[in-house]
Amino acid sequence: MRGWKQTLCMIALGVAVTMGIAAPAFADSTMLGTYYVLSPGDPDASGPCCWTRNDVIQPKLGPDGLPVIASSVAGVQWTPGHLYFSDVNASGEILWWSTINAGSTFAKTEIDSLPFGFTNLFPNGTDDAHGSFVADWTGTINLGADTSVTFNVASDDDAFLFVDGNLVIDDAGIHALVPVPPATIDLGPGSHTVNLFYADREPVRADLSFSSSVPISASTPEGSAGGLMALGIALLFGACWLRKPARLARSSRA
């Protein structure tokens, strides 16, 4: 009787280990989103509509992993009394996606499935009278060979797409939901990091669509899945073999 129980334990343990090695942390076509609420009193969220440009962001992410404004718009007003960007640090990075910015408050993190088709992306689900969402999503593209990858973005308002820290799409401005031309880039085999930054800055609508021609996978928070799997395996191993030392002890006393 004990023999078949031990056999079942060994089979279950093998299945658990195999699942821990083989199972992805999340299904393909997901990204990890970090959301902040931008105060309606923030200088970058209180301007009138509308402006749009695709040349106001530098080609690489800044030292803190945030988009950097072009020197051509630094300290420049797009309409009297309103700068293109006010919430920037000494490196020119836009601070909407950081609590370092006095007008940004952390809201939540969540896994979002692709393709994105967000409409009325408001903190309270109805309007942004008490603050608007700004968010950044991260994910990984894993390729086995050289691949041409196409991205599509449409946003109300700003959206900036980076791959491996390089700017791919610059859809800056306070504007309606208008698709920008698709961007196709060539990527080599291996892993590639995707960062999508979004900001709603004008209280009318808040929309974002985004798609990729290849799957993107959200990254697992470090240690979470591995730690849970290790704990489960340890408990399973203990349940299977805890009685064995007790049987040996009874035998030695006999």
| Helix and strand element order | HEEEEEEEEEEEEEEHH
Low-confidence stretches: 7-27, 221-254
Strand order of the largest sheet: 2-10-9-13-7-1-5
Mean pLDDT: 82
Written description of the protein model:
By secondary structure, this protein is α+β, with helices and mostly antiparallel strands. The protein contains 3 helices and 14 strands. A 7-stranded antiparallel β-sheet has the order 2-10-9-13-7-1-5, with no helix packed on it. Helix 1 packs antiparallel against helix 2. It starts with a helix and ends with a helix. The C terminus is likely disordered.
Topology:
Layout: H1 2-22, E1 30-38, E2 51-53, E3 77-79, E4 82-83, E5 104-113, E6 116-118, E7 132-143, E8 147-156, E9 158-163, E10 166-174, E11 178-179, E12 183-187, E13 190-199, E14 207-212, H2 224-241, H3 243-253
Antiparallel strand pairs: 1-5, 1-7, 2-10, 3-4, 6-14, 7-13, 8-11, 8-12, 8-14, 9-10, 9-13
Helix pairs in contact: 1-2
